[in-house]
Amino acid sequence: MIASETDAKSRMAYIEKYSAAFPDSKFQDQVSNYALYTLGPGQLNDQARLIAYGEKTLAANPNALPALLLMAGAYVDDSKAGSVGKAVHLLPESDRGCEGGGSGRGQVAKAFGRHGAFGSGLCLH
After folding, report:
1. Model-level pTM?
2. How far is CA 80 from each of CA 30, 36, 48, 110, 125, rounded to the nearest angstrom?
3. What is the CA radius of gyration of the chain?
4. Which residues contact 22 (CB under 8 A, 6 or more apart)?
5. Tens-digit pLDDT profile for the chain (125 aa)?
6. What's the burial of 73, exposed, middle or buried (CB within 10 Å: 0-12/13-18/19+)?
């Protein structure tokens, strides 16, 4: 039902009902990905809800690559003071170098470097 729903508002309503009814579902990571996609650019464009849902998702699974990427992008695009710093803090100290790492967080570092989010690359040491 969630995946086949084409209306973003209806999809998000289904996601919220599902998450409340089955908080420990083995499908929660996939449902969270749909939620972040639905709340993000091109769908509902609800920055505040995207950040709140993403932070909740990362609290449950700190290495969820889709959530890390979407949250990092959301923080970079956010005009609030300190938001870019939040994007950087998604990365552990060991992954804040130019090479990135093997974890999902390392992949975020690589993505930032490739896309020039922090100048020529993400070298923070």
Report:
1. 0.70
2. 29, 20, 11, 24, 25
3. 15
4. 28
5. 888 999 999 999 999 999 999 999 999 999 999 999 999 888 999 989 999 999 899 888 888 888 888 888 888 777 788 787 887 777 654 444 445 444 555 555 555 554 444 444 444 44
6. buried
CA 117 to chain centre: 16
Helix orientation angle between 65-77 and 28-39, rounded to the nearest 10 degrees: 20
Which residue has tokens 């020529």?
120
Token digits of residue 122: 């993400």
- Apex CA 24: angle with CA 5 and CA 73, to 5°? 60
Q: How far apart are the first and last CA of the chain?
A: 46
Which tokens belong to 83? 């938001």
Tell me how far apart the alpha carbons of residues 55 and 50 are, in angstroms, rounded to a whole number.
Answer: 8
Buried residues in 25-49 as b, exposed as e (16+ CB within 10 A):
eeebeebbbbbbbbbbeebbebbeb
Closest among 35, 115, 102 to 87, alpha carbons compared: 115
